[in-house]
Amino acid sequence: MSDRIEYGVLADEVLKILPDLIDTVKDGMCLDYTEFVPLMIKAFNEQREQLDAAKKQLEKQQAVIHELSKSYEDLAKRVKKLEKHKGGKNER
Fold first, then answer.
1. How far is the C-alpha of 79 from the C-alpha of 44, rounded, in Å?
2. Which of 29, 44, 45, 88 makes an SS bond possible with 11, Cβ 3.0 to 4.6 Å?
3. Number of other CB atoms surrounding residue 56 within 10 Å
């Protein structure tokens, strides 16, 4: 027995979504890895593109939130200043 880790997929799971890649043999089913690997690489790349787009969108949203937060803080300061100024005039 080898200490080497082996990776693979279950033909039953692939059969559900890509039945053309499964061959039936006398002992069960066999996955055609020469056809499977390019599809997985393509799917991986598509997922990476979607993730990159989501990250960019998140960065944009975080920038907008930051700007809105700064604007809110500035407005809150101005309101306090106005309330203080208005309050001082009423006391006279």
1. 52
2. 29
3. 10
End-to-end CA distance of the chain: 94
Q: What is the mean pLDDT of residues 67-85?
A: 95
Mean pLDDT of 13-32: 92
Alpha-carbon distance of 83 to 76, in angstroms, equals: 10
Rg over alpha carbons for the chain, rounded to the nearest Å, is 30
Q: Which H/E stretch holds residue 28?
A: strand 28-31
Query: How much is the pLDDT for 90?
Result: 54
CB 32 within 8 A of CB 19: no
> d(Cα 31, Cα 23) in Å, to the nearest integer?
6
Q: What are phi and psi of 30, to 5 degrees?
A: -135, 135
Strand partners, 23: 30
